[in-house]
Amino acid sequence: MSVPRTARARARAEITREITDAARRQLAESGAAALSLRAIARELGMVSSALYRYFPSRDELLTTLIIDAYNAIGEDVEQAVASAAAPRAQWRAAAVAVRAWAHAHPHEYALIYGSPVPGYEAPQETIGPASRTGVAILGLVYRAWQHGVLATTPESLAPDLSAQSAAIAAMIGPGLPESTVARTFLALTQMFGVVTFELIGQLNNSMDPAGPFFDYAIDTMADLIGLPA
Questions:
Q1: pLDDT at 196
Q2: In the chain, which segments carry CATH 1.10.10?
Q3: Using CB atoms within 10 A of its CB, is residue 51 exposed (0-12), middle (13-18) or buried (19+)?
Q4: Per-residue model confidence (pLDDT) at position 174
Q5: What's the rounded Cα separation, in Å, for the pair 210 and 179?
Q6: Model pTM?
Q7: What percent of the chain has pLDDT over 90?
Q8: If you average pLDDT over residues 119-139, what whole number do you get?
Q9: Residue 76: closest CA among 122, 137, 33, 19
Q10: What sign does the CA torsion over 47, 49, 55, 57 have?
Q11: Dihedrals φ, ψ of 227, to 5°?
Q12: How far apart are CA 174 and CA 143, in angstroms?
């Protein structure tokens, strides 16, 4: 049975939410590099010393924003995968979820998939949330392979890439071919690349609107992974 939160805990959670909401507004206005605890305190009518009791440094606030963003997009992808039955439909649903989340939260997307924030080094605690999207997609590929519906092509990888892929395969499921892991990662980078290019305007006046090109890229990457049509 869950224990009801105290009034103090509820108040702390509410103030924490107000701070992170203000930080997200600042991301949209000025970018992550300009994130300022003092500016957030001024916006919320707090003295800086009070805000520091919640987030002792800019980096701790950035870490919270990053973890929240990774968990949000990861949860959307996991739900998208669970909503479809066939592996190819799951892959497409996951990709559509990534694109939709990116369009709905462009500044948070840029925070986690854009340029590194100067002077900030992500701590270990961000790794789990950052992995959710990739794990969900590798999981659907692994299940397709388990069920014998994944088309696999024997492929010799360079030693370093082979070792990297083998280590990932060991975490996802026993026996998953190393080449399948490498191809899935290639598909992931292609998916995020198209989404990023669209968001920053690199597809303007070429593949604009980007929807048909995105669909083509996702279907082509499904073929590359070996997901059945």
A1: 97
A2: 1-56
A3: buried
A4: 87
A5: 29
A6: 0.93
A7: 86
A8: 96
A9: 137
A10: positive
A11: -75, 135
A12: 11
Does the pLDDT at position 38 exceed 70?
yes
136 and 94 in contact (C-beta within 8 Å)? yes
- Give the other-Cβ count within 10 Å of 18's Cβ: 15
CATH code for residues 57-225: 1.10.357.10
- Among candidate residues 125, 98, 118, 108, the one with its CA nearest the CA of residue 23: 108
Top-level CATH class of 1-56?
Answer: mainly alpha
Q: Is 80 left (phi over 0), alpha (psi -120 to 50) or beta?
A: alpha
d(CA 184, CA 190): 10
Query: What's the CA gap between 137 and 184, in Å, rounded?
Result: 8
So what's the pLDDT on residue 183? 96
Burial of residue 131 (CB within 10 Å: 0-12, 13-18, 19+) is middle
Residues of each domain in the chain carrying CATH 1.10.357.10: 57-225
Q: Is residue 118 classed as helix, strand or coil in its secondary structure?
A: coil
pLDDT digits (tens, 9 = 90+) for 41-62: 999 999 988 899 999 999 999 9
Tell me the CB-side half-sphere exposure of residue 26, using CA atoms within 13 A.
23
Can you read off the two tokens belonging to residue 79? Answer: 């739900």
Question: What integer pLDDT is reported at residue 2 of this predicted model?
Answer: 52
8 Å CB contact between 77 and 136: yes
Residues 181/165, Cβ–Cβ less than 8 Å: yes
Q: Are 62 and 33 in contact (CB under 8 A)?
A: no
Measured CA to CA, the distance from residue 97 to residue 80 in angstroms comes to 7
Say whether the peptide bond before residue 209 is cis (omega within 30 degrees of 0): yes
